[in-house]
What we know:
three-stranded antiparallel beta sheet, two-stranded antiparallel ribbon, 7% strand
Amino acid sequence: MRDIFECVDTIDKQYPQDVYLRFQQFDDIFSCLTQKSKEVFELLSETYEEQLTVHTFEALAAFAIFSGETYEVKCMFIFRLFDFDLSNSLQQPEMVNTLQCVVRAMCKVVGLVIPSISLLEQLAELCFQMMDDDKDECVDFDEFYTWTVHNQELQEFLVKYSGTQTYAYALKRMQALMDDSDLIFTKWSKEQQCTNILPALALKNYLQQYYGQFGQNCLDALFYMIIEYTLRSKNISGEESKAMKDHFAWKIDHKRNMNLLNDLYVKKSEYLDIIKSWNAYSVADVNNISKVSIKELKLLLWLYEEEEPDYFKLNLEMKIIDANQNMTIERDEWVSYLCSEESMLKRQNSTSLMQKVFDHYDNDELGQVSVTFIDALLRDTFKQQMRKLKDIKSIQNINNIILLIKQDFMKQVKKTRQTHLDFQQFHRLLVEAAHNHSEVSKLLNIQD
Length: 448
C-alpha cells in the first residue's frame, strides 16, 4: 500500500486538478505499480471530451482493491480516499462518490456490466442509511467497516474477483468446508457399512477419488498425516498389540508396507482433525492455484491454529514452511510441514490430548464415560507427559496428585450420585487441578 500512497502524493503535487487522466498522466502516476500500465489504462478508460481517459479515483480504488493487502487495510484506504473534508466520516455525497468509483472500477477490471450512474446513486443512498447505525447523518469508519464485513454479497464478490477476504468470512467458508468433510466421511463410512470409522485402505481410495486433482505427492502426504495422527491417538490411549507393532513398521517404509494397515481403522474425529489443515489451505488459497503468499499465510495460520499470528511468528513460519524459498507456500509444502514431528506434537495440545483419551473410553460414542473409568482417564492423560520427567521424585509427586484428583472427584460423585461424566466435566476437572497444582499446569500446559 506504500506504493499507492506514493501515487496519491504524485497526484497531489503534479495533477491536483485532474479528475480525468490521459495515458501519459496515468503512466506517470501508476507505472510504479504495474509494468502493464497501457493495458490497465485501456481496461479502466472511457471517452471523456473525445479522448480516452481514466477517472483518477476509479484508478486509485482499482489498484487498492486488487492489491495484495488485507481487507482491513484496503477498507481503510478507500474510506480515507473519499473523506474529502477530513472529518473522519463520510457524508452522503461522499458515500455516493465512494460507491460509484469503487463499483465502476471493479466492474471494469473483471468485465462485468457497469450499472448506470442513477442506479449507483440510489444504491449509495440506501447503503448510507443502512451504514449510519446511530442516525447522525454521517458514517464513521467503524460503521463503514462493520457493514461491509457483514454484507454477504460484497464479501462473495471480493473473494471471487479480487481475492480479498476478512477473517470472519474466511471462518464462515472454513466451517462450510468442515461441514462438507463431516458429511462426506459419514457417506464413505456408510458405504463401508461402518459408523463414524473407515478402514484405512478404503480411506486412501476415497481420498484419491475426492482430491485427485491435487497430485499424488499431496495425497500421499495427506494420507500419511492421517495415519500418523491415528497411530499417535492409539498410542495415547494405551493400545498395545501386535497390530500396533505392524502399524509402526508401516512408518519405516509406508509405500511398500501398505498391507500392514489392513486392520487399522480411522475415526471420524481423527480424520476431521487432520482435514482441518487441508480445508484451511483451501480457504486461504482464494485463487485456487495451490500457492499462498505471506499475507495469505497469516489467514491460513489463523484459521488453522484459531489464534491470530503476530508479525514475528508469521515470518518465522514462512521461513520454516517455504522449503523452496520462493516466498509462497505451495500446498505440498504446507502438508509436508504438517507431517513433521514438531507439527504433529503441536497438534497434541492439552485439550486435544484429553479429548482423545476421553473418546477412547467413550465406547458407545454417546459423549459420556462411566465415572468408574476416572482413574484410567487421568492416568492415560498424564502418561505421555510423565515420560518427560527424569527423576523418580517428580513422577511420584504426579502420581500422588492423580490420586488426590481422583479422591476429590469420587467424593463429589458420591454426593451427587453421578454415574457418568461428559468431556466438559472431565476438562473442567483437570483445569481446576491445574489451578490447584502448579505441577499439573506445567506438565499439561492447560489453559482455561
